[in-house]
Each structure stands twice: as C-alpha cells, then as structure tokens.
C-alpha cells in the first residue's frame, strides 16, 4: 500500500499528541492528498458528511519490535494486557484508525482540495492510507462496552499559567484553547509524577515548558519553536 495523503498537524513530536481522537476537539489539521489523488472527483459527495474515519500508519514506530502484552498508560503503566485488547502504537502491523470531524474542504490551493480536520490524534506528517465517511446508523453502537476503559479513574488536568507569563503574539486564543485541551489529557508517561520535573511540549508554532503539581499543569514558559 502507498499513502494517499499526509496529515499536517500542530504536533511535530509524539509527546503531547492526544491518546485518542476527538479528546482535543479544537486541534485543527489539514489533510493534503498526494498528487495522484488531488482530483475533485475523488472527494465528490464527501462534504455531505460531518465525520470521517482515517486509516493511517504509526510511521514513527515503523520497524519497532512489538510484544504480545503492553502496559496501557491509563492503567498507570503497571498492568499488562494483550496488545489486541489495547490501542498501543506498537503493533504487529503499525496501523491506526481515528474518527475525526470534517470541518470543510479548501478547494482554493495549489495542492488540490485539502480536507480541514478537527480532533485528530496524529503527529505531523502522518501517512494516510484511506478515508471513509463515518456513517452514524452503522458505525454508532451506543450499547457497546469499553473494557478496562469503562473503569478508568483518570481525571483531566487543569491548566494554569505562571504569574506574569507573556505569550508570543503567535499564540492565538484558538492555539491557547488547544494547549489547554492537550494538557488536560496529561501527556506525561504514566510512571512519572515528580512535581519539580519540567516537561517540554511542542504545539506549533510554540514550545511550552510545564510541570504538574497535583491536578494542575502549570505552564512556566512559552516561546516560538525553531
């Protein structure tokens, strides 16, 4: 298989990328088709749908060894489950599946029609292998159970900015909302809980330094990345 497109997101590194789609609903992305698929006929009728399935590759993990069991972060990183009972990125075949919001289609670009996406959980440049419309009558299963995720005791983090911290002009209100939603998901490894440790997260166009104290992520510095 060859990619039909690549997704452009504000997450150039794996650290900070939402662990599931739509957990950071304000996160915007652009799906840019490869030249053979930059044809209006390929997306005819797609704008009648509000949500899409993206089938993609864990490209940053290509060639990484996999194990029959993994330790889901939401279980504290201490409990092992079968790889097929989780959504671990380390899989026999590095294939991902995400449900995202289709906000619109930008047809006025030199790269052909570009899909405007919200709520993706993908790193910048992720290869997309297929797009399918989300069909509510077939894809929505209200009575489904969620296995170990039904009993998660996880609480989102609140975000606080250090007193006197000034944000660069590039950090728009929309960017700030995406940062708040990103930090709410607690991007730290499950085994790290040191309130004095500083973490660095890149949310384009800025790099953020933060620490976690109790149930709050405290942003201590924000600077333009690169």
Please give a handful of descriptors for the protein shown:
2 helices, mainly beta, 226 residues, Elongation Factor Tu (Ef-tu), domain 3, globular, YaeB-like fold, 7% helix, six-stranded antiparallel beta barrel, 2 domains, four-stranded mixed beta sheet
Structure, explained:
Helix content is 7%, strand content 32%. It is mainly beta and 226 residues long. The chain folds into 2 domains: 135 residues, YaeB-like (Elongation Factor Tu (Ef-tu), domain 3); 67 residues, YaeB-like fold (2-Layer Sandwich), CATH 3.30.2310. The strands form 3 sheets. The chain has a 6-stranded antiparallel barrel. Strands 9-12-11-10 form a 4-stranded mixed β-sheet, with helices on one face. A two-stranded antiparallel sheet has the order 4-5. The longest helix is centred in the last third of the chain and has 12 residues. The model has no long low-confidence stretch (mean pLDDT 93). This is Trna tsaa: trna-thr(Ggu) m(6)t(6)a37 methyltransferase tsaa. One of its GO terms (biological process) is methylation. GO terms for molecular function: methyltransferase activity. InterPro entries: TrmO-like_N, TrmO_C, UPF0066_cons_site, YaeB-like, YaeB-like_sf, YaeB_N_sf.
